[in-house]
Amino acid sequence: MTEHAGPRSLPDLASIGGGAAPLAEMYRALVEEIPAILYINGPEEHSPTLFVSPQTTDILGLPPEGWYDNTWSRHVHPEDRDAVQENYVRALRHGATDADEYRFVRPDGEIVWLHDTIRVIRDEHGDPALVQGIMFDITARKRNEELLARQAQSMERIAAIGQRFTELLLAGGDLQAILDALATIAGAPVAFDDAARQLVGFATAGLDSNALLTTWETHSRRVHAESAAAGCAWAPVRLRDEEWGRLHLLAEEDADEIDLLALDRAAAAIGVWLLSNRDRTALADRARGEFIADLRQGRRWSAQDAVARSRTLGGDLASPVLLGIAVELVADRAAAQGARDPGSERALTAVQDQLRRLAAEAGTTCMAAVVGSVCLAIVGLSSDARARSDAGRLAARLRSSVQEELQRSISVGVSRPGSAEALRRALTEAVDAAAHGARTLRAGGVYHSADLGLRHLLARLGDGPELGRFVEDELGPLLEHDATGKVPLLPTLRAYLDSGGQKATAARMLHLERRSLYYRLERIEALLEADLDDPSTRLRAQVALQSLDVLRQRNAAYTL
User: Fold this and answer.
1) 417-454 pLDDT per residue, tens
2) What residue stretches are annotated with the PAS domain (predicted)?
């Protein structure tokens, strides 16, 4: 900012302005009393410093000599240095008073904030004669501003955290959603165990889940008992003054205030979630249900992690042969027409319990849970050769037991055998097979996925867009008509095809007069621009209807 110059004394300043020595002494007394640094420079950008007050030593840790040799400019914070120089030059060019705030790094490394005001002094001709400046130490003010800014930011984060968990609960978020949210906020793994210190759910946030699963009970019992559990903050999850478990935040370093608050908010959210689900099922069953639902959707779990996780939930997916079993209640006439079945939830829970009991009696591992309107299970068997027969016997015993004890008809779907890597496929096949009996045939029974033929192929295609495009190409105009028209025509087409193209049989199935049936078939042909008397047209329509059933069942499963 300035060129080097030798130190100037206050008596020397008398010659600058033409004043007398007593005036300089008065000025010295004033300058040395105020808690600020005064300086005087020449009028040009690179003019030397003519005077600087001795407060530089106390405020900046730099004696006046360091100022005169221009050492001080090198102590301006690197991020502020260019802006300070630009502001100084601008003030000189415009002859204005200018104020700037910037950071100064003392020789001891401490950062000082300065408020620097400069004023250009002009001579009798109006030309710049001197530059006079005064610096105040505003470090305390800046620290207070930073503290207030951090507090405001913290308050905003606190409000956002509370809002996030509230919105999760209002949106029907489950335990896993709460754990994932906390792990994202804290950037650390999260775990929730029950009163027996068994792991119920977790979100890894990048941690090796297998390590967490295999060492959890040691951590929860011994580590917490022997020490303050360094690297782990936890909060109790309470429900009506009863502790149901603990929520753990597994941070590598001590959690900060925001993380601890998020932990408390998440624990409270889990308490609300428990309260809303307490009457429907036990906590462990909810955890199993979420785990199986994740497997069904292909979310989160590798085969290795799924096996480890299953052991913490009272099951073991390490068997050499695994297959899926799905149980769906066969609706009575009222339920089939859309009426709510108030006993279905209790019935499915009873089915779940009976399936576990029967599997245990048969010496078979079984993890079962109610997921939406279906009881889903993963069964472990020792032999691939006997998998179909063993699973069939288990399913038949379950159907007979439910019919006898609950007086309910069930459709049991059994997948093809596979391994832990194919669990998503197995559960999908089981759900499709159970739905085939419960919704398509509306008849109880045991349905093996391998026996579904075309429906099994269509179910496999349902994961991609091709099946939907095929249905739209074949049935699109008819579906649009039924969405807006008063009399749906899709049931007419279905009955006509199910009757093998026999119009008299179709009319009886629909309880219609033949003339009404003929009219509806003509409307269908016009909409589809097709001849229903053509066998190839009927074949395409039959496949399209089955494809539509698969897609609707798949969508219903996704909304479980």
Assistant:
1) 988 888 889 998 899 888 877 765 566 788 888 887 77
2) 23-95
Last residue of a domain, one of 73, 108, 137: 137
Q: What is the C-alpha to C-alpha distance for residues 160 and 491, in angstroms, rounded to an integer?
A: 50
Task: Give the residue numbers spanning the domain of 549.
Answer: 466-558
Is the same domain home to 288 and 355?
Answer: yes
CATH code, 516: 1.10.10.2840
Residue 186 to residue 52: CA distance in whole angstroms: 50
CATH code for the domain of 306: 3.30.70.270
3-class DSSP state of 311: helix
Per the listing, tokens 């408020």 go with 115
Placement of tokens 């091709």 in the chain: 466
Q: For residue range 25-61, what is the model confidence (pLDDT) as tens digits?
A: 766 777 777 889 888 888 887 777 888 888 888 898 8
Contacts of 123 (CB under 8 A, 6+ apart): 129
Q: What is the pLDDT of residues 269-313, one digit of tens each?
A: 988 888 776 544 566 777 788 788 888 877 767 777 778 777 777
Compute the distance between CA of residue 68 and CA of residue 321 in angstroms, rounded to an integer.
Answer: 85
CB-count exposure of residue 426 (10 Å: 0-12, 13-18, 19+): buried
Q: Which of 398, 430, 452 is the last residue of a domain?
A: 452
Reply yes or no on whether the pLDDT at 405 is more than 80. yes
pLDDT for the residue 6: 43
Pick 158 or 411 by higher pLDDT: 411
Nearest CA to 378 among 359, 363, 392? 359
> Contact 359/345 with Cβ under 8 angstroms?
no
Q: Say what the pLDDT of residue 420 is.
A: 85
144: β partners: none
Q: What band does 339 get if pLDDT is binned at 50, 70 and 90?
A: very low
CA 361/CA 35 separation, integer angstroms: 89
Amino acid (1-letter code) at residue 225: A
Tell me how far apart the alpha carbons of residues 448 and 492 are, in angstroms, rounded to a whole number.
Answer: 29
- Residue 3 DSSP code: B
